[in-house]
């Protein structure tokens, strides 16, 4: 079996800079008439379709696409502006049945679906790289290690909502799909040689069939620095400030962090200022913030302060899963022993197969199995639980036997970290 990690670290010629798209930079498609021409061209093309999307993370509210790039044999490269062409369902219909090639598909699929595009089949070059054992799976690293070309990556974090888009950015965007199908073909060959292609195809099918992610419950609990906030009244301040910030950010279409930082929210929760004068001296509420802004944040704090105790949020989110692993040794020493043995067996198998442990089986699946094992330990029972928790058939086939053995382990162990 080829060791992609070893191959990637072997001495190799310097990568060749990829300077220009083969047909040059195409014009940006921003009107229905121009989109109709693109739809016709890509419907007449052949083979897989390379697709990428650029968002304005850190600048705009939400994760909508501000540029969609495509490339297909017989059609060339297209750059589409979803602001001018917000409905791309006709393009999605034209590509129905074609295999989409994306890098880190789960990042781009939600914003593409907002435009009316969803693949029936896909090939994820990042996930393929993980399964093949490559140590670095970013697009630039994969193109360099697998194809020997160097991609420019200088514009990945720019504000893609800018209009008009500067030509250097369009140049970068076009090159992102230039070699994506070539990378797909090389990785397919690598996976086939390693005997992992069927595993990858199962993963790709699961991604394509997955429903849109459900909205997070209590997203305000993910405020950075939240672990410092202990009292329920302070937690209520975080909730009120977060919700107010989210409303303002949505109305202004800007990233919430540009309205008010997480650090400022936590500082206000810990201090709980009584008026705007006290609020203004806290980090993140400085002299650049106007009186009206300060008043809206103080009003949120005052609302939290006025809540009756019964309406205060609980310190931690409610969940039905097992407790944090560090608590297992005290709560259930036998479960802690099972988890320690299961982790060791998964780690050893992942090393043998040359792929990341989390791709072999998710840590959450292992924890849930070890916390609530079947009444009678058997490969059949373990396999059924793994499948019920969402493990793919290839994963179930590989980990069932070692995890069944791990569930039989007994005895006190140190708390898993």
TrEMBL record:
Gene Ontology BP annotations: nucleobase-containing compound metabolic process
Location of the region described as Disordered in the Swiss-Prot/TrEMBL record: 1-22
Residue ranges constituting the HRDC domain according to the UniProt record: 231-311
Database matches in Pfam families: DNA_pol_A_exo1, DNA_pol_A_exoN, HRDC
Matching InterPro entries: 3'-5'_exonuclease_dom (IPR002562), Exo_C (IPR041605), HRDC-like_sf (IPR010997), HRDC_dom (IPR002121), HRDC_dom_sf (IPR044876), RNase_D-like (IPR051086), RNaseH-like_sf (IPR012337), RNaseH_sf (IPR036397)
PROSITE patterns documented for this protein: HRDC
Segments forming a coiled coil: none
GO molecular function, one term: 3'-5' exonuclease activity
Protein name from the UniProt record: Ribonuclease D
